Amino acid sequence: MINAKGPRLQGMQAFYVMWSGQFVSIFASQMTSFAITLWAWDFSQSATTLVLVGLASFLPRMVLSPFAGTLVDRWNRKLVMALSDAGAALATAFLLTMFFTGQAQIWHLYLAGFFVGGFGAFQYPATTSVITTMVAKDQLSRANSLQSLISSASGIGAPLLAGGLIAWIGISGILVIDLVTFFLALATLLIIHIPQPVKTPDGEGGQGTFWLETLHGLRYILDRSSLVAIFLLFMTSNISAGFISPMINPLVLSRSGNDAAVLGLVRSAGSAGFLAGGLLMSAWKGPRRRIYGVAVGFIVEGLLGAAILGLGRSAPAWMVGFLVTGLSITIVNTLYITILQAKIAPDLQGRVFGIEYLATAASFLIGQLMAGLAADRWFEPAMQSSNGLAGFFDVLVGTGPGAGVGLVVLIGGLLTAAVGVSCFIIRPIREIETLLSNSRSENMSASIPNE
After folding, report:
1. Would you write out the chain's pLDDT as a tens digit for each of its 451 residues?
2. For residue 137, what is the DSSP state?
């Protein structure tokens, strides 16, 4: 077990320390990801290779997350987080060795990505569930919003810093920075107290073998109509999200004549939106009925953010659209996670969040595939002239390169807005905060002496 002599930080103070360590580690990992992408493109000149490098880490993280969630509930959660960081550090050390010795090949990236994805499957259920036991109930929204700031700030700063450093210290130097930050993240875990959750009847109901406990997490969800409904809602929203965010690159590039500078501005505006959403939610806990905030966020994202993106034909419009989209997504996700943390038994959250990650990640992947096929095979060819389909929609999105992609984004926005409206219509979702009893109280955390 991880142990440290002397008093350890607790509560929100401990969360800030943990957050700081995770921030520098994830920021450095994003720098590594950017540098590796540049190297892989230079080495292979293949877009398929870049996709496969991403899938190598994404697929094991997605598939293994429910099983990782069971182990999160079984094991000491601080130890799980440390092991997850250690696994990523080993993969980084392996890549550093390959690049430093001049032996790096594309398959090394696949292998390292698979390894990182396997250990990374623990990160989301572990981090999300420890927040519940670390901070007071009225601080959950703030803590979750700060977690969202990590990815948004890294998305803005990491590529810029890596792009400037790679010519000076090379990819090996960036990997060294990444490796050092893993140890910094581990050091922050050593000096804080992460309470284990108090045992509850819900959490202990499926005790037994590993498989029984995993299935108990699924049964816990299926036995509660509000959880089933909100999971299906977010799976649907992630399918529609697959019609929006992944289409930004082809939309902007095709409509701007492959202008990389314009794409950079648009992507930066989106990251700024995510950052602004995180800052807003860190200062504002959201509406009293959080599900209403989720609903309005979806509607704003679909009818304003995605609509401006799909209908827009210039950089300023795309920047505004992506900024609004990023802002809305952050607000929605922060409130959604906070609802689940308040309603799910803490000693069951690893399993539930592991299943939730599998469901939402798989649906986002399905949405991307559907959107890509729709754009390439149907809408983009159909919108090249003012005949047929284009004759009906050209007033909205115009014709020519990128018009079909814009139509796909617009459809995604309408689907997202419909998801928001359904929050008000479907009773198990609309009343989730009253239909599900609170599963935690201010004193539900327990200190485990042998942590």
Report:
1. 444 444 467 788 889 999 999 999 998 998 898 888 878 877 877 666 777 888 888 899 999 999 999 999 888 888 999 988 888 899 999 999 999 998 989 899 999 999 888 988 998 899 888 898 888 888 888 888 888 888 777 777 787 788 788 888 888 999 999 999 999 999 998 888 888 888 888 777 777 788 888 898 899 999 999 999 999 999 999 999 989 988 888 888 888 887 777 877 888 888 889 889 988 988 887 888 999 999 999 999 999 999 999 888 888 999 999 999 999 999 999 999 999 998 898 889 999 999 999 999 999 989 988 888 888 888 878 777 666 555 566 667 666 777 888 889 999 999 999 999 999 999 999 999 998 876 543 334 433 333 3
2. G
**In the chain, what are the domain boundaries?**
7-196, 202-439
CA separation for the pair 90, 377 (Å, rounded):
42
Q: How many helices (H) and strands (E) does the chain have?
A: 20, 2
Judged on CB neighbours under 10 Å (0-12, 13-18, 19+), 289 is middle
Tokens of 223: 């036995």
How many whole angstroms separate alpha carbon 65 and alpha carbon 321? 32
Superfamily (CATH) of domain 202-439: MFS general substrate transporter like domains (1.20.1250.20)
Domains 7-196 and 202-439 share a fold: yes
CA distance 315 to 262: 6
Which long-range contacts link 107-110 to residues 24+ away (Cβ below 8 Å)?
A: 109/36, 109/40, 109/53, 109/56, 110/52, 110/53, 110/56
- Token pair listed for 450: 């042998």
301-304 long-range contacts, Cβ below 8 Å, gap at least 24?
301/325, 301/328, 301/329, 301/332, 301/413, 301/416, 301/417, 301/420, 302/240, 302/412, 302/413, 302/414, 302/415, 302/416, 302/417, 302/418, 302/419, 302/420, 303/413, 303/414, 303/417, 304/328
CA–CA dist 278, 103 (Å, integer): 41
d(Cα 422, Cα 432) in Å, to the nearest integer?
A: 13
Residue 196: strand, helix, or coil: strand
Tell the CATH topology of 7-196: Growth Hormone; Chain: A; (1.20.1250)
The amino acid sitting at 384 is Q
As a whole number of angstroms, the distance between CA 410 and CA 307 comes to: 5
CA dist 337 to 194, 244, 397, Å?
Answer: 19, 22, 35
The burial class, CB within 10 Å (0-12 / 13-18 / 19+), for 280 is middle
Q: For residue 196, list its beta bridge partners.
A: 446
User: Can you tell me whether residue 9 is helix, strand or coil?
Assistant: strand
